[in-house]
Amino acid sequence: MIGSGDLRELYQEVIFDHNRRPRNFHAMEEATHQADGHNPLCGDQLTVYARVSDGKVEEVSFIGHGCAISTASASLMTEAVKGRPVEEVESLFEDMHAMLTEAHPDRDMGKLEVLSGVREFPARVKCATLAWHTLHNAITEARETAKTE
Ligand code: ZN
Hints:
The protein has helices at 4-20, 68-81, 86-101, 122-148, and strands at residues 33-39, 44-53, 56-65. The chain is an alpha+beta fold. The protein has one domain (4-147): Sufe protein. Chain: A (Alpha-Beta Complex), CATH 3.90.1010. Helix 1 crosses helix 2 (68-81), helix 2 crosses helix 4 and helix 3 packs antiparallel against helix 4 (122-148). The chain is globular. The relative contact order is 0.19. The model is unreliable at 145-149 (pLDDT under 50). Bound molecules: zinc ion (ZN).
């Protein structure tokens, strides 16, 4: 049986790993969407890139600098949303926000679960949600721009 202490340790290990070696950490020239995110409370700053085609997030990447939580969360996000339809990414964004601020969502959050402990530290919630808000802005903004054409 796995105790909650062991689980917490496992979660922290995953967060440390994603902070040390962030996945999809690069700028993207062929991005169709991009946005900057800034969390002044902590100083986290990042740019999220996405290549969307046929309503699907084909590629996603990020650059920037910030605390371990913001970097790990962005890295985990890129892995979680890659290849998913935009609507699914948006609903995952909502569930992620719920997981970090209210109660746990019904759905299995998979690897994103490792960030659920952040809920106990309200000051760090913005660090964990920054990448998601930024991706959300990137995706919705470009869609609005496309509408006016
Ligand atoms: Zn932070």
